[in-house]
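Consider the following assembly input.
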Amino acid sequence: SQKIEQNSEALNIQEGKTATLTCNYTNYSPAYLQWYRQDPGRGPVFLLLIRENEKEKRKERLKVTFDTTLKQSLFHITASQPADSATYLCALARGNDMRFGAGTRLTVKP
Amino acid sequence: NAGVTQTPKFRVLKTGQSMTLLCAQDMNHEYMYWYRQDPGMGLRLIHYSVGEGTTAKGEVPDGYNVSRLKKQNFLLGLESAAPSQTSVYFCASMDAKETQYFGPGTRLLVL
């Protein structure tokens, strides 16, 4: 069965450092992969999408890579700020099938 | 532009009771989704719709029914609630660029 794993449940880093979150998957061939941010008590908010034929995407301080051979996506937040503290979800999709990881809770300490 | 709204925000049900969760979007999106989110698990797709009048099963459809009579609304029904359906339910709509817009969620407790 399909499995999506996000590297750890929680990640703590110091302000100004780069946060790197991992999304690994098995038994799945996504057409695209997305990253979402979720704050407590709120719905997820879309951040970035990367397609299976793309290696890297950037948006401001965010960068996502996608390696379909390793079946892995890395999500980077550079120059992290306390306001970046949230849970980050990866989502894989092919057609109408959508699968989400459980999320990584990121805490950026001042 | 309200985006995606969900009603109610919170509900307590007794086992066996029924209820309907309402999702509305004002972005004219064709695709709409219902998910449930449980601690330690990712969002799991319950049902989805690719347009008015059409619905399809997702990963965990048992115990739920849906209807999409109007493009802007997507209803999720629980005919006979069970404690295992205690969860946070999120509705989402998707645009042509495959970006999903989520509602604020409905917290459901089944006793």
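Residues 32 and 51 of chain A are 4 Å apart (CA to CA). Ask yourself how this observation constrains the way the partners meet.
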